[in-house]
Amino acid sequence: MSAVPKVGRILSGMRPTGRLHLGNYVGALENWVRLQDAGWTNFAMVADWHMLTTGYEDTSNLQGHTWDMVLDWLAAGLDPARTTIFVQSAVKEHAELHLLLSMLVSKGRLERIPTLKEQIRDLGMDEQTISYGHLGYSVLQAADILLYRPTHVPVGEDQVPHVEVTREIARRFNFLYCPEDQPVFPEPEAQVTAFGRLRGLDGKRMSKSVGNTIMLAEEPGEIEQKVRQAYTDPKKMRKDDPGRPEADESDGHPGCVVWEYHRKFNAAEAEAIATECRAGRLGCVADKKRLSGVMADVLGPIRERRNQWAADPDAVRDVLADGTRRARQAARETMELVRSRMGVKSIVEPE
Q: Cβ contacts of residue 138 below 8 Å, gap of 6+?
């Protein structure tokens, strides 16, 4: 990956699973807002079709989860005037480009994607019965990205292989259909989020299904109650015991979650807190209380903005309607080029 330019164009997306937690914010959303504020051209997509690759049997919560996620996006600071916020299924060109690009990649290439193998294992699936849509979801993801011809795609480390598939497909399309013309698609670069991943309160992967999360717009009382349960150092039984903020591989200690959260949300004090902990001058109860206050302050503006947007659902609908209009315009322009270069533009123009 080459150096990131000062300003470019990005396509970002999330599967709508409802209200977001701090892991979603640190792993993706915070970076979207930062790039928006730096002047990048942003497209933020609700990837509702991608929910069907593993959850097609029950779609009863899809609309509600979409609504909650968009509220959290707006609360976190995405500005509809500077970021195009839209729902994937409202822009049908995603399906058309997915179909056309699916001709350019082999089944064997898709089966080699590491995250696909991990999903099959984690979901207890059989490779012989995986759905056609699930196997090809990385091609749909490539279509989602290339439709807006971005220069970069902000992702976590685990999604870098998918961006590489996108780059391969773009390269093959340009080679086949643009040999003497300007390429239709740039080869977008993966822009890996700096902080990466925030652990759950129990020290393991953050997940709503496990219940080890702090939600993005959590109330102060709920934050304090949850932080009380956060994993620290099991060997620090009393305040004056020396603590271990960092991981210790000798006994499998993964590092103190409370200190990890300080490093992310209270960086100015994090090292001083670690020093006090190591010296036995700071107890876990007092440290957790301090973190609870920090988190309440950090999330306060987000919570306030969410409440304001939630109180005006018509304004949220207007955001999505305008975002859809802008996304459709960009998608139509790309598909005109794609159809023309591939020679599949109908000789009979639609009415």
A: 110, 113, 116, 162, 165, 166
Specify the pTM.
0.92
CB 284 within 8 A of CB 258: yes
Q: Rounded distance, CA 76 to CA 69, Å?
A: 10
Q: What is the dihedral of CA 158, 159, 161, 163, to 10 degrees?
A: -160
Is the pLDDT confidence value at 308 over 80? yes
Query: Structural domains in the chain?
Result: 9-198+313-342 (3.40.50.620), 220-309 (1.10.240.10)
SS3 content of the chain, % helix, strand, coil (to 5): 55, 10, 35
Instruction: Look at residue 128 and tell me whether its pLDDT is greater than 60.
Output: yes
Cα–Cα nearest to 81, from 317, 322, 312: 322
The identity of residue 243, as a single letter, is G
Could you tell me which residue, 50 or 159, shows the higher pLDDT?
50
CA distance 45 to 268: 34
Write the pLDDT tens digit of every residue in 55-70.
Answer: 888 999 999 999 999 9
Q: Which residues pair with 87 in a beta bridge?
A: 46
What's the maximum distance between 2 C-alpha atoms anywhere in the chain? Answer: 81
d(CA 281, CA 171): 58
The rounded distance, in Å, linking the Cα atoms of 290 and 293 is 5
